[in-house]
Write a structure and sequence with these properties.
With 467 residues, the protein is an all-alpha fold. The chain has a two-stranded parallel sheet. 56% of the residues lie in helices and 1% in strands. It has helices at 18-25, 32-46, 58-79, 82-96, 98-110, 119-140, 147-173, 175-197, 202-229, 270-277, 282-290, 306-314, 319-323, 332-341, 344-351, 384-391, 394-407, 413-431; strands at residues 357-359, 374-376. It folds into 2 domains: 18-229, no CATH class; 233-431, no CATH class.
């Protein structure tokens, strides 16, 4: 195969104007793999501007851009052509990141309404499609040396992939997602095989992809800047502290008690737990009442979202009264977001001299940012931004598959993430002397909304699979 590292002149230089010869004489840099790898980070941030601080983009941007360069370097060694390797690397990057996001959207949209067809039929169709491609591939590149070896490698790849699908992947993901993933991955690999054999002008391809990737990132930057510009002034800097609205009282130096505010999202009231999950928390409630806690047996939430409920609670008023006329503005959700982070309770406690310590729940909109002195979170833990980003790429399915092999059952990625944060909170409270670890009568650790995950209670209780 011809090495374009030395021969990268592209098309013939005869009959060209001096300006064109100067352009062709300048070596073309392969930038598009790294630029395309950054696209998911800026795309996700552009649609969540004002909810995520810019420093939180540094780690995922560095990992993805570095990964894109690493893929290009590996393919450059294998293909011995930096421009051909760049095109192949961009195919891998786009397929694993932005393309995978579309694949997950397709699976999520079609799977609930798709008829459950026989898995054997998919195996037959997949085999026939692979044979047709291999025949076409041989016809396209029959004159090139080593084409039979390439055919053998492609056939072995397709056989191994469909074997993994039958033995492991179908149990981890289900039939329809597995079929979609297998077809998608096979298409990408076959495209790479064509690029590896194609004898086109990859210098022009590189120049075009560099411009395309650069323009795409510029558009995302403009979109992010426009979304930030439309935010309320207080919400444009999420990490900046708010000014205390309450006046400083004379007794600020007096001794005040410690305050623990624990909000349990998705923790149902006692009768619902008993009826739906056979989980009796009466001993826990009795113990809490004995310590002077007030319990409300027939409580109901005023709002459908935790963010709305917490915003109302921390501002000590109904949400429509907290927002006032701002609820009719162009971006009412941003107004709720701003009212949550700049709330009256935090302002009042800071005016009394309190130091606010927060155990991060792991949900980006619910991570308090204003007037906070200390935030506790697990070391090396993903942020909400990174978790959403990973879920929309091939990394999400890879993690799900690893957990399936480890636990020998389907695993919900969101449940595992929330469980990690919840257990960290329990350990932190127990270590600080706030609440004895596992004092509650029912040690129910799984997220109630997690599909196909048993709701774990102590011995003697039934395990109910959720639907």
């Amino acid at each position: 195969m011809q090495d374009n590292d030395e021969k990268d002149s592209g098309p013939a230089k005869t009959h060209l104007r001096p300006a064109q010869r100067d352009v062709l004489a300048t070596p073309t840099r392969v930038l598009h793999p790294a630029l395309l790898a950054l696209q998911p980070v800026l795309g996700l941030y552009a649609n969540n501007a004002g909810k995520t601080s810019l420093p939180e983009l540094i780690r995922p941007a560095f990992v993805l851009a570095g990964g894109g360069v690493a893929v290009w370097l590996v393919l450059r060694v294998l293909l011995r052509d930096k421009y051909r390797a760049g095109v192949a690397a961009s195919i891998v990057i786009v397929a694993s990141l932005a393309g995978w996001n579309f694949l997950e959207y397709f699976i999520g949209s079609v799977e609930p309404v798709a008829p459950a067809g026989p898995w054997l039929a998919f195996n037959v169709v997949y085999g026939v499609a692979c044979v047709i491609f291999l025949l076409a591939y041989r016809r396209m590149f029959a004159s090139q040396p080593g084409v039979l070896l390439s055919l053998a490698l492609l056939a072995a790849f397709a056989a191994v992939l469909i074997g993994l699908a039958n033995v492991f992947l179908r149990g981890a993901f289900g039939a329809f997602p597995t079929g979609s993933i297998v077809a998608y991955v096979t298409t990408v690999v076959f495209c790479l095989a064509v690029v590896a054999r194609y004898s086109g002008d990859f210098v022009n391809w590189t120049q075009t992809l560099n411009w395309f990737a650069g323009v795409l990132l510029a558009l995302y930057m403009l979109l992010a800047a426009g979304n930030v510009w439309r935010l309320p002034p207080e919400a444009k800097s999420p990490a900046s502290p708010a000014k205390a609205t309450a006046s400083l009282p004379a007794e600020v130096t007096a001794k005040y008690p410690d305050i623990y505010f624990v909000a349990l999202e998705g923790y149902a009231r006692p009768d619902v737990l008993q009826r739906s999950y056979a989980c009796d928390i009466t001993p826990f409630l009795t113990a809490m009442q004995g310590k002077g806690f007030q319990t409300v047996p027939d409580s109901r939430s005023n709002y459908a979202l935790a963010l709305f409920s917490l915003t109302s609670c921390l501002n000590m008023d109904y949400l429509q009264d907290v927002l006032g006329e701002r609820k009719n503005g162009p971006n009412p959700f941003a107004e709720v977001f701003n009212a949550y982070h700049h709330n009256k309770v935090y302002d009042f406690l800071k005016s009394k001299g309190y130091s606010l310590h927060v155990l991060a729940p792991g949900s980006e909109p619910l991570d308090p940012r204003s007037n906070i002195d200390v935030t506790y979170k697990p070391l090396r833990s993903l942020t909400e931004f990174e978790r959403v980003l990973a879920k929309s790429t091939a990394a999400g399915r890879a993690v799900q598959f690893v957990r399936y092999l480890r636990d020998d059952k389907p695993s919900t990625r969101r449940a595992a993430f929330i469980r990690e944060r919840t257990e960290f909170v329990f350990d932190r409270l127990a270590g600080s002397g706030g609440v004895p670890k596992h004092e509650a009568g029912a040690d129910c650790r799984r997220h109630p909304k997690a599909r196909q995950t048993p709701f774990e209670c102590p011995a003697g209780f039934r395990k109910w699979p959720l639907v």
